[in-house]
Amino acid sequence: MTAGDRLSGYVDGLERVTGRVPYVLNMSRPGMLHAAILRSPYPHARILSIDPGPAFKIPGVVTVLTREDLERGLVAVPRFGSIIRDQPIVSMEKAHYAGAPVAAVAATDRETAKEAARLIEVQYAELPAVTDIEAAIAPGAPVVHETLDIRTKAFPDVVPDQSSGTNNCNHFRLRRGDIDAGFAESELVVEGIYRMPGTQHVPMETHVVIAEPSVNGSLTVWAATQTPYLVRAQLAEIFDLPESRVRVIVPTLGSGYGAKTYPKLEALVAALAMKAGAPVKLVLDRDEEFLTIRKHDALIKIKTGARRDGTLLARKVELWWDAGAYADVSPRFAMFGGFYAPGPYRIPNVMVDSHAVYTNKPPAGAFRGYAAPEVAMAYETHLEMVAEQLGIDPIELRSRNILRAGDRYATGEVMEDLHFPELLDDVARALASAPERGEPLLPHARRGKGAAAVMMATITPSTSAAVIKINGDGSVHVLSSSVEMGQGSRTTLSRIAADALTVPLDRVAIVDPDTDVTPFDLTSSASRGTFMMGCAVLAAADDAKDQLLGSAAELLEAHAADLELRDGGVFVKKTSRGAPFSDIIRSVRAGTIVGRGTFTTKGGLTPGTGQGIASAQWHPCTAGVEVEVDTETGAVRILKIHVNTYAGKLINRTSTELQLEGAAIFGLGAVMMEEMVYDNGRLLNPSLADYMIPSFLDVPAAFTTTIIEDHDEHAVPHGLGENGVGPIPAAVAAAVYDAVGVRLNEWPLTPEKVLRALRQVER
Amino acid sequence: MLIELALNVNGRDHKVAVRADETLLQVLRDRLNVLSVREACGVGMCGSCTVLVEGRPLSACLLLAFQVEGKPLVTVEGLTPDGALHPIQEAYLTASGFQCSFCTPGFILATKALLGEFPDPTDDEIREYLAGNLCRCGSYIKILQAVKAAKERS
After folding, report:
1. What is the pTM of this model?
2. Is the interface score ipTM higher than 0.90?
């Protein structure tokens, strides 16, 4: 960052360094009660009886929420889920996983609520559980959900298909070309199996919800959520209220990474608050966060056919995603994993089957990277094997097959703005000049380098809307439901509005998400905010600008076509004749000028074949790493990371770098240390004492990024908040192979696994 | 059963009635409204609830409030007597050494302790010292820049 760079910094940086960020965690309401949740100890059990009586022996307990309330009319609909209504507000006839909410207590303080929750008496009859993918899809497997309420029109891009077998949550298919002919023509066929365990987002701020019912029956919810509008829609359905009487307010989040997308605990807290007739606040403890949402365990099988010259001809991929007990967004997740599976390569014959599978584990959902890191670990590790068997350098093999502008992807869509040749060259250069080359410190350590490429999509079709309000003094409000969670959306949208309306940045203020006030946005996730909401803000600014020009034409006695915006005013082009916004607004007695903008993308894939437009934009990313492997202990140390991406029009250099680096460190955590470990469906490590995330010491000193920009004035920004996660695990795995000749088809690359593999190679 | 404690937070004396088992974190947040101190792990692993106790960076989630009675406590709210930005805060602001910023107060306090102990730390010493503060957003590279800039300023 250079001083005075107009693309640097955060507009809300001051509150960040002074500890004044207004997280929901820091909020309270008059008369507010505090909630605690009683959770199932069993991964799968019938609930025979619940006796909340003992909880009321604790002074300060106000009310207890159980399934009886859901059955007796407290709610109109007892289950939620954006695509499949399979998640009960509290467990009903069955507990579906160890950690599933069974009852909730509201009390005058949090400690009292927790103590009381422990006293609720529940009788269970344990049922056989399915706790991994193989068990869930085995013939005759115990069934997680006997019946399901599927909303096929929940999202235009997702059509769940549960026709193929027990515990199937969604089966996505992609078919292109002739897979059999492709393999028949191939001179080399390589197969591989890849496994990645579930991990947790570990947002530093856990899930927090405050719900406040009013005496007239309306409901206000303050929630740490990335999807205010989706939460509102579900609360309205659950409580049978018009959306005009459900208000979801979202201040800045202490991060999300996907954990806070789609409804989670809002309905439970709202039901408790309705029953108590008072505001109720729930703050999850860290262990509860692990039991609320996580990333899918993945099992991926790939078969690739190629010519001797390195031309890829055919790829067959089967993927399974352990969705846990509830669908959450797994039907879409399996679809993304499925259409990512061919990788960023030209392959004429492709067959993909991607399955989300129910198990008796905590529900899995959106997670930064959204299936791309797992799929890239599989297809890039696989490509390294193909390269080795062909005797071609892996980066060279990528270059020969990589998608270029104008190529068709496996979905049939024409690719643009990928820039892979530049990105791969950049990585090759960075690895060639690795400063860490030289002798390892230990005689039994070996060094190696690896690279990987990934391509990410964004939800398509989707919609974002924004409103711009120009106040009487010419200052500007941007109303948007983009959730600020550290990615810098308040800064990015402020800059876009300031530039479009030619006003100084400090004259622009953001109105944070409030579903009573700010217009629709689908979600703050999927690397879509800067692109989608940025375009919506531009459209709103254009609308405001048209109104300003129209009003100014009268005031300045000129044609609107001869006018332009400049320095917060309207001027006759190339002259100093003009008026500030304030004079124009006063002249027409408008009070304020309101501009509206809606940005919608088109596309979607045909069910059954996966052909169509998967993404309005594709986001490329490549990375190179250098590692040192201790052959005595199996310990892998990352010496260098270089990661790059294409940003399109750059709006915020600081947050672009931060997100690219941060995403890469997410990938580093996955490949080096993170894993949710279970014993018969019971999570053993829901604590930061037992579940490691990257610290300062895990991040190499040599850590560089390249951001390719498009300086064209019509260029649009490209999403990139997740890109860096994807290539890191595969690049590290490749570097470990380069160093010591062991190919690991799974993560994390713990010393135990590396050492075991080393011993096998030595034998 | 409540006990009365005399706590000194950011140079101000407080008399506060607490349960014997209340952590310093609970008392600061729930009774004294010091909201920059935040729980993220509850087991002393993440540093988000860092408080300077007699200048030493400690996890407020692991301390019982009565253990720090009478000892001067500093949080980011009290880094400067007049509420102006401390040079370390300025350095974090200029370098954008944060994303979601939940961990930022803890990092800033740990940086203050670091520069108090080692006025001219090497990059490796900075990494080592701040390894007890976790930033899940992964802002470490810009945090390192911030600490190096803070070193120059102080």
Report:
1. 0.97
2. yes
